[in-house]
Amino acid sequence: MSLAERLRAATGTTRAAYGGDWAVAAHAPDPARVLTDAAVLIAVIDRPAPTLLLTRRTQHLRRHAGQVAFPGGRIDPGDDGPVAAALREAQEEVALDPGAVTVVGTTDLYETGTGYSITPVLGIIPPGLPLAANPAEVDTLFEVPFDYVLDPANHQARTGEWQGRERRFYVIDAGGHEIWGATAAMLVNLSRRLA
């Protein structure tokens, strides 16, 4: 099975299997909650052993400073939907040429505790692209083994207090890079779709 065929098995946007950065169980969306639409690019690098492109956000950002994340952000009025937004954000953040991305599709919407409804866009990119971190948003970019981050054995459930409540969330330790929150939850969702 090709990488594209494998990823295509996970496409088709549905209501979020997880809601909030911390949740680990299915939930009923709150129709009264106002969310900001956003999109991220889950860029899989087409190597013999595929890797996943991730970023570490700069420390000076107001939100999610220093966190590991997919390239992405809010959907702007000029964007032609979530795919266009994810590609635009990836170009702005890591200089990824949108023409170099083979878009496979989208997967489960993800609602964060910070008020975003995120559409994950699955894409395949070739190795060796001249990528560069935009220092205004991204401290560094790096690759992790795709199969490693999808392996449920590497999905650690943890608890922590946030806004006065105990929350549960996932952490994936990938070569010294701690992936958690929405990014880890979207990888857990993707892993379950591909299982």
UniProtKB/TrEMBL annotation:
**Entry's InterPro entries?**
CoAse (IPR045121), NUDIX_hydrolase-like_dom_sf (IPR015797), NUDIX_hydrolase_dom (IPR000086)
Cofactor(s) demanded? Mn(2+); Mg(2+)
Looking up CDD domains in the UniProt record yields: NUDIX_CoAse_Nudt7 (cd03426)
Say yes or no: keyword Signal present: no
Keywords per UniProt: Hydrolase, Magnesium, Manganese, Metal-binding
Report whether Magnesium shows up as a keyword of the record.
Answer: yes
Pfam families from the entry?
NUDIX
Any one GO molecular function term:
coenzyme A diphosphatase activity
Task: Report domain Nudix hydrolase positions.
Answer: 35-170
> What PANTHER family does the annotation carry?
MITOCHONDRIAL COENZYME A DIPHOSPHATASE NUDT8, NUDIX HYDROLASE
What is the protein name stated in its UniProt record? CoA pyrophosphatase
- Native species: Glacieibacterium frigidum
